[in-house]
Amino acid sequence: MTTENHSTHDAEQDARNDDLMIFVDGKIVHKDQAVVSVYDSGFMLGDGMWEGMRLYDGEWAFFDEHMDRLFNSCKAVSLDIGKTPEEIRALLNETAASNGMTSDAHCRLMITRGRKAKPFQHPQLSRFGPTIVAIVEHSRPATSLLGKGIRLATVPQVRGLPTSQDAKFNSHSKLNCVIACLQAEQAGADEGLMLDPHGFVNTTNACNFFIVRRGEVWTSTGDYCMNGVTRQKVIDLCRTNNIPVFEKNFSLYEAYGADEAFLTGTFGAQTPVAEIDGKTIGPHEGAGPMTLYIRELYKALVAENVAAQQAARA
Ligand SMILES: Cc1ncc(COP(=O)(O)O)c(C=O)c1O
Question: What top-level branch of life does the organism fall under (predicted)?
Answer without folding.
Answer: Bacteria
